Each structure stands twice: as C-alpha cells, then as structure tokens.
Amino acid sequence: MSLVEKIQKTHEDSLRKGELVFIETEIESFVEDGVEYQLRLVPQLDKKPEQTAEAVNAEKAATSVNPFLPYNPDLFVTEFEDHVVLLNKFCVVPGHLLVVTKEFERQSLPLNPSDFAALWKTMSSIESNTLGFYNCGAMSGASQPHKHMQILPLGQLESPPVEPLFKGANLTPGKTGQLPGLPFLHYAVLFDQEKIKELGNPEAVGDYLVDLYSDLLDSIFEEVTKYHLSEGVRLLGSVSYNLLVTSKWMLIVPRKEDKFGQISVNSLGFSGLLLVRSKEDLNVVKRTGYLNLLSALGYPLPKAKPVQSEALPSL
Q1: What positions does the domain ATP adenylyltransferase C-terminal occupy (predicted)?
Q2: What pTM does this model have?
Q3: Is there a domain that residue 313 lies in?
Q4: CB 242 within 8 A of CB 253
Q5: In the chain, how many domains are there?
Q6: Were 254 and a residue from 40, 193, 209, 220 both cysteine, which residue would form a disulfide, CB within 3.0 to 4.6 Å?
Q7: 30 - beta bridge partners?
C-alpha cells in the first residue's frame, strides 16, 4: 500500500470511528497586488481546543497536556526512526499530516537533519502538491508544545499563493534573499534541484536542507536583534518564526505578535492561506488588507542604506 493510499484509508477509518474531525469551510479568494490569497471561513474551528501563547511556551503545558505522548493510534499513518506521521485530528483539508518527534522536544527548538529528512521523505512520497510548515515558538501560532511539523495537501492549487512572488526575486539557488512584494522581514531560498537529484536519499537531502535553513535562521536572528537594539530592548530568548517548505523553496518569517485582534495566524497565513472563524474576521482581513495584517504580526523590513555617491571631479 502506497503512502497516499494509507493516508486515505486512515482518514476514512478514523472519520468513521469519530476519532477525526473534518471541518467544512467556505473558500473565498482575495486578490491584492496581483496575488490571489485564499481565505477559508471556518466557524466550526471553535471545536478545536486552543492554547494561549504563554501555555505553548510553558514547561508545565509540555508535561501536562500532550496529545502526542501517547498519540492516538487511529490517526497513525507511518513512522521513521525519530518521528511518527499522524493525521491532524482537526482538519479542514483531508490528508493534513503531522510529522511528530517520538520523544518530547519543545516546539521552540530549531529543526535538525532528522526532522528535515522525515519531512522530505513524507512530502516526496505524496503524489499531489504539498506544503510543509513549522510553527516555532510562542508567537508563531503554534497550538501544541511538542515539536511537530505539518504537511498540507494543496488540492486544486498548483502551488501556495505566495509562490509567484519568487518569480521576480532573482534568487540564486542556495543563496538567501528576499521577495519583492512582501513588506515585512523575511528571508527565502531556492533549492538547487540538480543537487537534490544527486543527493538522492532523504537523509542526504535533510543535511542539505538544514544547511539552507540555518542560513535563514542566522539572517532573521541578526535582523531581529538589530531591531530590538534600535528599540532599546535587549532580545531575550529565542525568536518565534514561521517556516514554509515546498519541493522548490523555503521561506522564513520572524514573528513578534501571535494574533491580529482575535485572528490567530500560523505559517499557513504567510503562505497565502488564512483561516478565519467568522464573517466578522473575514471582513477585518478585507478592510485591513492581507499584507498589512501580516506586517502587523512580523518585523519591519530593515531600511535600505543610502547609496554614497562618488565626489565629482572639479572642472
């Protein structure tokens, strides 16, 4: 049985048993600056228990409430040496997967080669387009303190809504850069597809991806540190961020706010896919503007340094 077939069978079985909650959504497109974002109205999302940012970051929450230790066996799909792959119990898209560490690790920790290998092996085994993501830290929209990555099938979408922004970025594969059109601090990197083909196995690809990811982390940490110093505040602890991963690229966005009003935003929001709980929240997004809303949750782009013109020779 292929992984795709196993995901489908597990989804059907767990739905029939009542162990999985599939939540219907209303989809509405929202075009801004030539990018078509997808808003999903999910009034039933209130069925999903939500933890505060403080609870996610608290050690007590890690030991007292953990749906992954033990995990629900009815949601189990497959496993690797250090990870299990589970169906997301509360899903708005069939086949939404969680790639969870077998042993407890905090959601505020960076990903390692084993994490990337498990993520890549799972994504590359699914025939349809997928989006991987990681909500890291208390301000990232993470809902559980146990380290887990997520994989979302994109269905009818050929790619995440933000992908067209990569076309005008002139990024060199393997080199960190930024995307024109995103007005908040972020860094992105294109994968060297030839190198990935040469590496072949997921473990080697995991080592390659973690190197690129480390460059992204270094870039955001440097800029976030500068921002806090300019505000007269010393940066204490780790930086919360959202990480998006496709078969072609990675994008990282540091976060300083968890919510916009009552609208909670995780990595999916920065991919161009945003879940809202009510018509009122939907209207807030439209009035505010999609990119303005995301900008309020992240850090400002660093100001460009003025270009020093050379002195003209005297006549």
Answers
A1: 181-300
A2: 0.90
A3: no
A4: yes
A5: 1
A6: 220
A7: 37
Q: Which amino acid is at 63?
A: T
Examine residue 239 and state whether it is found in any structural domain, yes or no. Answer: yes
* Alpha-carbon distance values, 227 to 199, 203, 231, 235 (Å): 38, 36, 6, 9
Question: For the chain, how are helix, strand and coil distributed in percent, rounded to 5?
Answer: 35, 25, 40
310 inside domain: no
Does some domain include residue 54? no
Tell me the CATH number at 242.
3.30.428.70
Distance from the Cα of residue 284 to its chain's centroid: 22
Report the C-alpha gap between 285 and 27 in whole angstroms. Answer: 14
Q: Which domain holds residue 188?
A: 3-46+67-297
Pick the catalytic residue: 11, 83, 96, 148? 148
Per-residue pLDDT of the chain (315 residues), as tens digits, is 899 999 999 999 999 999 999 999 999 998 999 999 999 998 765 545 554 444 444 444 444 579 999 999 999 999 999 999 999 999 999 999 999 999 999 999 999 999 999 999 999 999 779 999 999 999 999 989 999 999 999 988 999 999 999 988 989 999 999 999 999 999 999 999 999 999 989 999 999 999 999 999 999 999 999 998 888 877 667 899 999 999 999 999 999 999 999 999 999 999 999 999 999 999 999 999 999 999 999 999 987 554 443 443 333
